[in-house]
Each structure stands twice: as C-alpha cells, then as structure tokens.
Amino acid sequence: FVTGIFHLKVPETSHVGSAIGRIRAVDPDFGKNAEIEYNIVPGDGGNLFDITTDEYTQEGVIKLKKPLDFETKKAYTFKVEASNLHLDHRFHSVGPFKDTATVKINVLDMDEPPVFSKPMYTMEVYEDTPVGTIIGAVTAQDLDAGSSSVRYFMDWKNDVDSYFTIDATEGTIATNELLDRESTAQYNFSIIASKVSNPLLTSKVNVIINVLDVNEFPPEISVPYETSVCENAKPGQVIQTITAADKDLSPAGQRFSFKLSSEASNKPNFTVHDYRNNTAGIETRRNGYSRRQQELYFLPVVIEDSSYPVQSSTNTLTIRVCRCDSDGTIQSCNVEAIFLPVGLSTGALIAILLCIVILLVIVVLYVALRRQKKKDTLMTSKEDIRDNVIHYDDEGGGEEDTQAFDIGALRNPKVIEDNKIRRDIKPDTLRFTRHRPPAEDNTDIRDFINQRLQENDVDPSAPPYDSLATYAYEGNGSVAESLSSIDSLTTEADQDYDYLSDWGPRFKILADMFGEESYNPDKVT
C-alpha cells in the first residue's frame, strides 16, 4: 500500500451493494505476478463491508453489505490485506508477498424519513361499533439528530379507506362509518408518515383491521324446508334430519338447540328430537296418516344459538303425506294419486277437463253471437231515427201558410223559454182540434195575431217543428227591417207601405192591403 491508512466518508443513506470507496496497493511486477487480491481482516466493523478487486486497475473496491445508520454508529475501522494472487513457489523464502492497511469509514448524517415502530400493524374492531371510536394507533419517529415532528395521513386508494380516519398528529385510527362483518370482514390500507421539516421525506406502513362478529342474526333451518311422511308410518319413525345455518360468523364451540314451538308441542302428529350435535330429527307420533283427511302438515321448529346475546327463530317445516310401499319407498305424493284408488285414471281426468273446456267455448260463442245481434238491431234503429230527422227538416209555406209557424215567436222570443214543450221534434200526443172563432169584422190585426199566438202557444202539435230557430228573430239585420207594424212608434196612418210593391209577387197581397190607395184601417179584416 502506498499509505497505511485510508479515510472514507459514506452517507448513511447509501444502498446495500453499492461501492463506497477504493484503495490501491502497488506491485512493481508485471503480468500475472502483478495481480492483487484484497481481503478484509475480521475485526471491528468488517462485517458491514466487502471488498473486491478491479481487474483493470487492480484497485480494491469497498462495497456496503448492510445499511448504515448515523444515529446508531458514526464510524467504522477495519483492516484490509493485499496479496499476490499468483505466487511463485521458488520465492516463498524471500517474503510474505502481502501488505496490510487500515480503513476508517465515517458515516455521514443524512436527512431521512420517519421510521415506524412496527413493520405492520394489525387491529381488531367489533361490527356496529359507533362512528368515531378509536381502535388503535401507529407511531413513527424522526431518528435524525434534528428530530423533526411527524404527521400522519391515509394513503387513499379506494372507497374502502373512507371507513376509517387517522389523527394527523397523534396517529390514532378511528371508525368513520358503521362496519358490517357480513359485508367486509377485513380492511387493508396504508398509513403515510412525513417529516414536518421536510414533507418530501415520507415512509409508509401497512395496516390490517379485522372486523369481529356480533351475534345479530338468528339461526335458520338449512334446506330442505319440505319433507314427506308415508301414510303407513309408525310412531317414533325419523322422517327427516335437520341442521341449522347462521349468517353470523359462528365462534368455536357454537351450539344450536332444536325444539317444537309451544303451540305445536301439544299436537299428536310430530315431534323434534334434539341430538345435541347441532342436528335434530323429525319423528312421527301417530300410527299412520291419511291424505284424504290432511295432505299437508306445518311443523314450527324453534332454533336457538349459544352466542351472546342469544338469538332464536321459528322455522316452519312442511310435511307432505305420501303413498309408500311396504318398504317405505315413496310412490306418489301428488293430488292425482288421491283419486286413483276410486277408479279414475289419468286419461279419464284429461277427458273430463276437455269436456269442460269445450262447454266453456260453446257458452262464450253463444254470448258473443247474442251481443252481435243486439248491436246490429241498435244500429238499424239509430239509422231510422237519423233518416226521420232529415226527412222533416223543411221550410215553412210562406205568407199564405197561416199554420206554418208561430208568429208569436217573432214578436216575443221569450216564448221559447216560457214554453217548455219542444218544437223541434214531433210530439207523441194526439193533435188537438183547433177551435178558431171567426174574425169579427173591423177587428184590429193586433187582436187577431194575439189570438192566433195564444192558440199556437197552447197547441203542442202546431207545425213546423224545426223552423222555430229560423224565424224567431226575423227582421234583425234585414234591410226591410220588421214586416209587422205592431208596436210601431207612429200611428198606422203614418206608415208608408209603398215599398211592399218592390218586393215581388210573393208580397203582392200585402202591397194591395197596405198600399197608399187601398189601405183603410177601418176596413182591414
């Protein structure tokens, strides 16, 4: 060695297997005789390091075998021996052909992340624990000389982590939601710790929380819920062995007990025999059963567990009476078998059912035809009524038809409201005979019209039947205005009726009667 002591400075964060320094021994030989082998002399601190030879430079490369910790040990000292790899036996007597040097390694303090007190944490909590209950805590420390404070937080990866919270300062873990063991029996998540002085330096630890079961579900009968008994069964015969199932996580030594309910214990049909090994047998208590008397029996069985608090449930077992042979082999349990001894075969039952179906079809067809016939009759009647309405829809006969319309309606439209008899349809009553007294000479036309008005008001058969709306308001909006001189503001002598001659032949009689030359109120009849 050129020098007898080598000083190296190594950071405590150096990785295992990494090269932390080099030393060199000088050999004036050449070729194979110059190859050097380095070895660490056993002693203080040598077990944390290893040394190899660089075949190109013949230097000794010191490597780290175990992690360093400044807070645990700050310096290491050990010796390294260098020797020729190839020795010539002829020169053994000349010298040992090796040399020793001392290596001193100083560990440098580095800013490291916090360190948890355990590599993994396991905790337990009962289901249905109230929200906010503390179930455990994690602890991490800063082992550096500066000793910074530590903060904790959840490593959120999925929604499962939301069931718990952690106190950032104390590291205590508490429930954040109600837990259900039947839904999730175990939770697995990570907690991260970081230094307050350097939040980038973090460490992580895994936390496992096991949810403990609380006895909240009663036991139930395992399938099947239905069994059978032979008609020729004997008393004390076991017809079914039942077991129980519990949705809760059954603890070691869990026991289930079986018994009849109180209301069924007094009935002489069946009983339950508890074998005290979490099973029970259903036994008969009668000498034979009859399907004709009772086909089904319902047996209430009470099952109780041994957990705390005790849970129990009543389960109904259906027992069907069946026909069996002498060996107890079931031959038939259906309803059809009850009728077979009477003499009705399967073919006979099918024939009876077919006859019933055919009768039902005939009845349905008959009812449908009757309804169709009634419908056709109603349609014909409706068409006749419609034709009748169209048939008498005609106008009045004009001024010469003195019976065509009720002129009183022209003078007083309120007659429509006062007279409740409809004039738009033909009345069913017999036509009243009109008694028309002869108009006296020199009778005022007003009295004549009023007389006719009263006659028509009391005559329900006065035609026309559908022209009331047509003539009820005649004169409104007409150029000729009203044709009547009744209620005129002036006297009859002041009226000018010459314009009637301009209305054509249909008003010729009126024009002659009320014309200027021929009109004389005293002669009008």
UniProtKB/TrEMBL annotation:
<keyword id="KW-0106">Calcium</keyword>
<dbReference type="GO" id="GO:0016477">
    <property type="term" value="P:cell migration"/>
</dbReference>
<feature type="transmembrane region" description="Helical">
    <location>
        <begin position="338"/>
        <end position="369"/>
    </location>
</feature>
<feature type="domain" description="Cadherin">
    <location>
        <begin position="221"/>
        <end position="339"/>
    </location>
</feature>
<dbReference type="InterPro" id="IPR002126">
    <property type="entry name" value="Cadherin-like_dom"/>
</dbReference>
<keyword id="KW-1003">Cell membrane</keyword>
<keyword id="KW-0479">Metal-binding</keyword>
<dbReference type="Pfam" id="PF00028">
    <property type="entry name" value="Cadherin"/>
</dbReference>
<dbReference type="GO" id="GO:0016342">
    <property type="term" value="C:catenin complex"/>
</dbReference>
<dbReference type="GO" id="GO:0008013">
    <property type="term" value="F:beta-catenin binding"/>
</dbReference>
<dbReference type="InterPro" id="IPR000233">
    <property type="entry name" value="Cadherin_Y-type_LIR"/>
</dbReference>
<dbReference type="GO" id="GO:0034332">
    <property type="term" value="P:adherens junction organization"/>
</dbReference>
<protein>
    <submittedName>
        <fullName>CAD12 protein</fullName>
    </submittedName>
</protein>
<dbReference type="InterPro" id="IPR027397">
    <property type="entry name" value="Catenin-bd_sf"/>
</dbReference>
<keyword id="KW-0130">Cell adhesion</keyword>
<dbReference type="InterPro" id="IPR015919">
    <property type="entry name" value="Cadherin-like_sf"/>
</dbReference>
<feature type="domain" description="Cadherin">
    <location>
        <begin position="117"/>
        <end position="221"/>
    </location>
</feature>
<feature type="domain" description="Cadherin">
    <location>
        <begin position="2"/>
        <end position="116"/>
    </location>
</feature>
<dbReference type="GO" id="GO:0044331">
    <property type="term" value="P:cell-cell adhesion mediated by cadherin"/>
</dbReference>
<dbReference type="InterPro" id="IPR039808">
    <property type="entry name" value="Cadherin"/>
</dbReference>
<dbReference type="GO" id="GO:0005509">
    <property type="term" value="F:calcium ion binding"/>
</dbReference>
<keyword id="KW-0165">Cleavage on pair of basic residues</keyword>
<dbReference type="GO" id="GO:0007043">
    <property type="term" value="P:cell-cell junction assembly"/>
</dbReference>
<dbReference type="GO" id="GO:0016339">
    <property type="term" value="P:calcium-dependent cell-cell adhesion via plasma membrane cell adhesion molecules"/>
</dbReference>
<dbReference type="GO" id="GO:0045296">
    <property type="term" value="F:cadherin binding"/>
</dbReference>
<keyword id="KW-0325">Glycoprotein</keyword>
<keyword id="KW-1133">Transmembrane helix</keyword>
<keyword id="KW-0732">Signal</keyword>
<dbReference type="GO" id="GO:0007156">
    <property type="term" value="P:homophilic cell adhesion via plasma membrane adhesion molecules"/>
</dbReference>
<comment type="function">
    <text>Cadherins are calcium-dependent cell adhesion proteins.</text>
</comment>
<dbReference type="Pfam" id="PF01049">
    <property type="entry name" value="CADH_Y-type_LIR"/>
</dbReference>
<keyword id="KW-0677">Repeat</keyword>
<dbReference type="GO" id="GO:0005912">
    <property type="term" value="C:adherens junction"/>
</dbReference>
<dbReference type="GO" id="GO:0000902">
    <property type="term" value="P:cell morphogenesis"/>
</dbReference>
<keyword id="KW-0812">Transmembrane</keyword>
<keyword id="KW-0472">Membrane</keyword>
